[in-house]
């Protein structure tokens, strides 16, 4: 995998109440998977090469964060599961009770898990939500802004959010 992280940048989001919030942003360049086709590409999701393994961008981001000392999961809203690998390679993850309770607190405020950011990670008493967006093809949706707003309302710090833009 070719992985290129540019200097940390920021992006400004406008919350439903009209206030503005600054969120950290990273930019990565990933390599497209050229090996054997995976069984389920979730309707055409890009498959990336991460250290010789096929993964979706959300899982690559999770593994990059793990190398930085985080634990975490991909919040697979399409499959309605928490994962740390492709569905064909590993069973869904069940979170520790305190992590699930934390997510549920935000979900209750947000009116459900719709809009939850792609990766939920933790390190000691810190939490991180990372949202994967393919450069020039994806944009933050209103549901994701609502999730961000709900998390901030329950006391999550803006530093606990990371926008990851990527290309291949």
Q: Looking at the structure, what is the overall shape?
A: globular
* Strand numbers in spatial order across the main sheet: 1-2-10-9-8-6-7
Fraction of residues in helix:
10-25%
Largest β sheet strand count, sense and barrel closure: 7 strands, mixed
Order of helices and strands: EEEEEHEEHEEHE
Radius of gyration of CA atoms, rounded to a whole number: 15 Å
What structural class results from the helix and strand content?
alpha+beta
Mean pLDDT: 93
Indicate the proportion of strand residues.
Answer: 25-35%
Low confidence ranges: none
N-to-C terminal Cα separation, in Å? Answer: 10 Å
The number of strands is: 10
Number of helices: 3
Number of domains: 1
What does this structure look like?
The chain is of the alpha+beta class and 168 residues long. The chain has one domain. The chain contains 3 helices and 10 strands. Strands 1-2-10-9-8-6-7 form a 7-stranded mixed beta sheet, with helices on one face. A 3-stranded antiparallel beta sheet has the order 3-4-5. α2 crosses α3. The protein is globular. It starts with 8 loop residues before the first strand and ends with a strand. The model has no long low-confidence stretch (mean pLDDT 93).
Helix-strand layout with pairing:
Blueprint: E1 9-14, E2 20-29, E3 31-32, E4 48-50, E5 53-55, H1 57-67, E6 71-76, E7 81-83, H2 97-110, E8 119-123, E9 126-134, H3 142-153, E10 161-167
Parallel strand pairs: 2-10, 9-10
Antiparallel strand pairs: 1-2, 3-4, 4-5, 6-7, 6-8, 8-9
Helix pairs in contact: 2-3
């Amino acid at each position: 995998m070719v992985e290129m992280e540019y200097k940390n940048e920021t992006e400004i989001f406008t919350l439903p109440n009209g206030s503005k919030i600054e969120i950290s942003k990273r930019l990565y360049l990933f390599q497209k998977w050229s090996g054997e086709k995976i069984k389920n590409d979730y309707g055409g999701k890009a498959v990336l090469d991460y250290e010789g393994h096929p993964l979706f961008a959300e899982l690559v981001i999770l593994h990059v964060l793990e190398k930085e000392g985080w634990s975490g999961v991909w919040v697979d809203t399409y499959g309605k599961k928490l994962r740390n690998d492709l569905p064909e390679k590993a069973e869904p993850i069940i979170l520790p009770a305190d992590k699930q309770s934390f997510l549920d607190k935000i979900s209750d405020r947000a009116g459900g898990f719709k809009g939850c950011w792609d990766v939920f990670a933790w390190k000691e008493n810190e939490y991180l939500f990372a949202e994967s967006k393919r450069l020039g093809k994806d944009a933050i949706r209103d549901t994701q802004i609502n999730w961000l707003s709900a998390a901030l309302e329950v006391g999550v710090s803006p530093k606990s959010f990371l926008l990851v833009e990527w290309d291949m």
